[in-house]
C-alpha cells in the first residue's frame, strides 16, 4: 500500500511561514520530502492540501503542487512497470533527480584493478585484468556503459569464450568477475539496479561440467615413495607436493610466503592469502621431515622454502617469483606422475582436491573437511569433493548382498 500526500508541516520559520512537505507512506514506513515551498497558516487549505485564495499567487503555487504530485505518481508507476519493489530511499532519489553517472565500463574496470593493486591484492587484480582483456577483445567498444551489458550480450560473450577453447569453468570465472563488477557499480550509483542482467543470465548453468580432479590415496603414496636420489632435480617439487597434501591442502602461494616464524612448537600457524582465514596445522611426521630438510639445506632468508631468495620484496616481485616457480612446479609434477605410472593430470590444484577427497573416502564427515580446508560455506567444500568411483559403490552393494541371509529372516 502506497500513499502520497501534500501537507503543511507545523514547524514555523523565522518568517512566520510553514514548510510544505510531501509525505510518502509504503508498508507503514514514511519518507518526508521538503518541496521548498512555504505558506502562512491562513493561506493554506488543510482539507484540499493547497493554497487558498488569500495567497497572492495561489494559482501558480497550486500548479507547482499538482506537478509534484503527478511526478510522484509517475515515478511509482514506472517502478511498477519495471517490476521493482522500490524502497523509500529509491523513491526519494528518483524524485530529486539523482542521476547515474556515465562512467564507462572500461573506466570503472581499470579503476577497480588499480585499487586492487594499491592494497596488494595482486592475484585478484590479475584475474580482473585477464577478464578485462578477454571481454574487450570480444566487445570492441571502450565506450560501453553498464546499462548496455544485457543478458543477450552475456550470452554472446559466453559463445565467444567457448568458441575460443575456454572451458565452462573458465567461462564461469569470467562471468563472476563481471557480476562482481556490476554489483559494485550499482553500489556506487554508476548504474541503476533495474538494469541488472544477472537476474536473467544465470552463471550456475556453467557449473555442471566443471569436474574437480583428485588423486587416490594410492596415487599420492606412489609419488611419496619416489626415490628422488635418482632424480635430484625433483627434490623440491616432491617436497612441495607432500607438504601441501599433509598440511591440509595448503596452496602454493601460502607455501611461498611461509616463514620460520609460522612454526610454533609442534604446529604451523598462518593466515591464508585468499580468504584471510587463520590456520593452525599440526606438524605430523611427513611435515616434520620436510621442515627438518629445509632447516639443514634451505636458504638464509626467513622463508622456509627456497622460492623467495631475497627478503623485503615488493608484492609485485613476490607475485612474479611465485608465478615463475609455480609453472616449474606444475611441470615437474607431471614428470613425477609419469615416473610413478600415474595417468591422471597432476597440478598443484589437484593436491588440494586430493586431500579433501581422500578424507571423504576415508569416512570423514564433510563438516570436518570443510573446517580443515577453512571454508565458510559447506557447499564450497562439496564442490571440492570428487564423487566416489562406480566400483567403490559397486563394492559396497556387493558387501550388502554377501551378508548372511539369516540376518534378514523374520
From TrEMBL:
Keywords: DNA recombination, DNA-binding. Residues 218-397 form the Tyr recombinase domain. It comes from the Bacteria. CDD domains: INTN1_C_like. Belongs to the 'phage' integrase family. This is Site-specific integrase. It comes from Leeuwenhoekiella parthenopeia. The lineage of its organism: Bacteria, Pseudomonadati, Bacteroidota, Flavobacteriia, Flavobacteriales.
Amino acid at each position: 500500500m502506497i500513499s502520497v500526500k501534500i501537507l503543511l508541516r507545523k514547524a514555523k520559520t523565522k518568517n512566520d511561514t510553514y514548510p510544505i512537505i510531501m509525505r510518502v507512506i509504503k508498508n507503514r514506513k514514511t519518507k518526508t520530502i521538503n518541496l521548498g515551498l512555504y505558506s502562512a497558516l491562513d493561506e493554506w487549505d488543510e482539507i484540499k492540501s493547497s493554497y487558498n485564495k488569500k495567497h497572492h499567487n495561489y494559482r501558480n503555487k497550486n500548479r507547482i503542487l499538482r506537478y509534484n504530485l503527478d511526478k510522484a505518481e509517475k515515478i511509482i508507476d514506472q517502478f511498477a512497470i519495471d517490476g521493482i519493489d522500490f524502497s523509500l530511499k529509491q523513491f526519494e532519489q528518483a524524485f530529486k533527480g539523482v542521476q547515474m553517472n556515465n562512467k564507462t565500463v572500461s573506466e570503472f574496470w581499470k579503476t577497480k584493478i588499480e585499487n586492487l593493486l594499491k592494497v596488494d591484492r595482486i592475484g585478484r587484480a590479475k584475474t580482473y585484468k585477464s577478464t578485462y582483456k578477454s571481454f574487450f577483445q570480444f566487445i570492441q567498444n571502450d565506450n560501453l556503459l553498464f546499462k548496455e551489458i544485457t543478458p543477450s550480450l552475456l550470452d554472446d560473450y559466453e559463445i565467444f569464450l567457448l568458441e575460443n577453447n575456454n572451458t565452462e569453468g573458465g567461462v564461469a570465472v569470467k562471468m563472476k568477475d563481471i557480476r562482481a563488477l556490476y554489483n559494485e557499480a550499482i553500489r556506487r550509483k554508476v548504474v541503476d539496479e533495474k538494469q541488472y542482467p544477472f537476474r536473467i543470465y544465470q552463471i550456475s548453468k556453467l557449473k555442471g561440467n566443471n569436474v574437480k580432479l583428485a588423486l587416490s590415496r594410492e596415487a599420492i603414496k606412489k609419488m611419496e615413495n619416489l626415490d628422488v636420489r635418482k632424480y635430484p632435480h625433483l627434490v623440491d617439487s616432491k617436497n612441495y607436493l607432500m607438504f601441501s597434501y599433509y598440511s591440509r591442502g595448503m596452496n602454493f602461494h601460502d607455501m611461498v610466503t611461509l616463514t620460520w616464524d609460522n612454526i610454533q612448537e609442534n604446529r604451523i600457524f598462518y593466515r591464508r592469502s585468499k580468504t584471510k582465514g587463520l590456520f593452525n596445522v599440526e606438524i605430523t611426521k611427513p611435515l616434520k621431515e620436510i621442515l627438518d630438510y629445509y632447516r639443514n639445506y634451505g636458504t638464509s632468508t626467513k622463508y622456509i622454502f627456497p622460492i623467495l631468495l631475497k627478503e623485503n620484496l615488493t608484492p609485485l616481485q613476490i607475485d612474479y617469483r611465485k608465478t615463475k616457480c609455480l609453472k616449474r612446479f606444475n611441470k615437474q609434477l607431471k614428470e613425477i606422475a609419469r615416473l610413478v605410472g600415474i595417468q591422471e593430470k597432476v597440478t598443484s590444484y589437484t593436491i588440494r582436491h586430493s586431500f579433501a577427497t581422500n578424507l571423504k573416502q576415508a569416512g570423514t564427515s564433510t563438516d570436518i573437511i570443510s573446517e580443515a580446508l577453512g571454508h565458510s560455506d559447506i557447499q564450497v567444500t562439496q564442490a571440492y569433493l570428487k564423487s566416489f568411483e562406480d566400483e567403490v559403490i559397486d563394492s559396497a552393494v556387493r558387501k550388502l548382498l554377501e551378508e548372511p541371509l539369516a540376518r534378514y529372516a523374520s
